[in-house]
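Running log. JK asked me to keep both predictions on one page so they can be read side by side. First protein, sequence followed by its tokens:
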Amino acid sequence: MYDKPTLMKVIELLRRVRPAVVFAPSPQDYFADHEITSQLVRTACFCCGIPNIVTPGVGPYKAVPHLYYADPTGLVDIFGTEIIPSIYVDISTVMQTKEKMLLCHRSQRDWLLAHHGMDQYIESMKAYAAQRGAQCGVRYAEGLRQHLGQGYPQDNILKTELDGFIKDRSDCSR
């Protein structure tokens, strides 16, 4: 839930880890828990440096981390409108690893099967990755959006650090 105790835990975690980059679920997604998690992460990234927010045992983290949002499930918002990424990450060479990782998420599979009667989550993941890949000329890609609001870093650290695997929107078609 988006409440003070949960937010304080996320702020404390960021202060302990002191990340340069944070990835969060899309602020618009098919299920509210993804959206709430996104809100918690966004607020914590901004607040982890505020000195009058007290987290016992760990002080403020001076930098606001780079914040990136993952693609939403289905690549669309809750109204069915496609979310257009600002950054594409070529995942073609690691797709088998991603598939193996998703297969380990047994509780998600079981829930989707029981709640939605859906057991095609691996095929769906591949289809979404192929759709993003087609938009930027690779076999598989993931889309990300960088949070560029006031107070957040404006440089694209992923483009700098992962040169060769990252394309921005201007490099890709829709």
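And the second, directly underneath as requested:
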Amino acid sequence: MNYRHHYHAGNFADVLKHAVLVRLVRAMQRKERGFRYVDTHAGRGRYDLASAARGDTLERKPEWPEGIGRLWNRAALPEVLADYVAQVKAFDQKLGNLESTPRFYPGSPRLVEALARPQDRLSLFEKQPEEAEALRLEFAFSLGVGIQSTDGYSGLKGQLPAPEKRALVLIDPPFETKDEFAQVVASVDAALRRAPASTIAIWYPLTERARVDAFFENLTALALPPTFALELTVVGPAHEMKMKGSGLVVINPPWQIDRELEPAAVSLAEVLAQDQGGRAELRWLVKEA
């Protein structure tokens, strides 16, 4: 596996994914009872944006200025986005950044850990050895966080049903293999069989519409509970950019969370558009009864 997320940390896809994730955690915490957060592709936990421009051998253009960079000093953000930006700023400042631009960006495990209550638990999976070791060091002194250096798809099965009886799962693969969508569908099928009420969020890139539509068809063939897809594009379909946007499928979404996320995503599309055609859309794959 060659994927290194620090080259992409804080980009427009991270902004959408992490803003939604923060909101999902907040919604899970409406109830006093704890929940289990499972991250199948956890990464290293934090990213130094100063290294984003350094590739393995050549310099590369950092992506965060077109993502979190556009939100950093923006006033009057919708509450969903303001909450997310506040979490990123708190993390950045905690690590000592005093500059007016972001330096340290939290991955999904750090965002959730910062919000977690004593009764909430985190189970993090990372297969790539170097990333897994960095993740262990990142959470070496954290309570309520379990880390396993193994495949997250297979690891998810052992986490469900969760001891807490409630679970929030993030499936956020690198999509380096041609069968990644198929692996996601199989993992969701197994997860829902073991814990039908689990809330599952799945990140996916918008590179080929046909592949995403086939993914939706295969997902809905599982006889899903209520499920929606929230998509954000920053350029139009004819643009040369390979990844024109990204999306999140949310299975068993918390009650009425779509009413918070859709207007926030529309606002985000306006802020993050890199050319004509940027937009956001929420559509139900399986409607609530």
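Observation for JK regarding the second prediction: Residues 12-28 form the longest helix (17 residues).
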